[in-house]
């Protein structure tokens, strides 16, 4: 019955074939749901989640809270919604939020922190994405009639623009200790927190214990089609639920979307290791071709194109013409992201295409 309804065989063939053919390394968000996920969706028991009557959403939220070592969790439509609901719940208009200078929440969310929560951002340059505790302590506002109030500190792990850099347990603890001392909550944008945990060989709770609230994406390397989790203490999540509704994020039979999220958390975490291996292989191949590659710690590979005197956008166009997709991160930086649809064979093909392009550039130059 579920097979007929969802036409699963066709869907999955499409899912694997399509991404493989195109060698789409733009993001791990392009991963399509697994067959197990599609089956779980078709068979999900559902209800109206605004009335909190969707048993599958309730199960996902409980499971996510346990996995992250928090009292409660909320299923949200996206990582952006999870982060913004967190800022809205922690702050009021005019508050100041400390965030890393190239953090997603500041750099890639359409100015939502200021537009929606009405907060101002105090950005600090991190060290491969990690904020230094002493910098955070210096940036925390004192009690002065002229000052805004520092109400939130945001961390990101892994750090996207720093090239999937891992923030260590010690680094997280360092910032959290300062935050605790000053009574300021810490929110973690953990869109790829499971990548950080797997890369360090620690349980995800080792990292999330040094946060008050945490957002994790189910729809990136974990392959769920939609959604993120926001977790924290019970009172915070109650208030966050109100903000999510206000933003239009109160969904009804959302169990169909929560079901693959449960699979993401229970079955898809350990395999992130494979994505990290593919990224290492890709980086090693690029280095062999004399390209400059930033250190690779997880599933993101940043390659510089200045050594070949070609902008990222131009090089990407030539790659796309040969079926390899990636994204530009700076004028001379390209980001390649590995994921479930990129196997060893795809890595070899990407390297083959890049080698040919470099050869062609040399001849014409
Ligand atoms: C992808 C990402 C987000 C946002 O997730 P969406 O689901 O795309 O809104 C937030 N933070 C980081 C670090 C991300 O990589």
From TrEMBL:
**A GO-annotated cellular component:** cytosol
Q: What is its EC number?
A: 4.1.2.48
Where are the coiled-coil regions? 262-289
Q: Where is the Aromatic amino acid beta-eliminating lyase/threonine aldolase domain?
A: 24-305
The EC class name is lyase
Q: Which PANTHER family match?
A: L-THREONINE ALDOLASE, L-THREONINE ALDOLASE-RELATED
| Species per Swiss-Prot/TrEMBL record | Brevibacillus agri
- What name does the UniProt record give this protein? Threonine aldolase
Q: Name one GO molecular function term.
A: L-allo-threonine aldolase activity
According to the UniProt record, list the residues that bear N6-(pyridoxal phosphate)lysine.
220
InterPro entries in the record = ArAA_b-elim_lyase/Thr_aldolase (IPR001597), Low_specificity_L-TA-like (IPR023603), PyrdxlP-dep_Trfase (IPR015424), PyrdxlP-dep_Trfase_major (IPR015421), PyrdxlP-dep_Trfase_small (IPR015422)
Q: Which domain of life is it from?
A: Bacteria
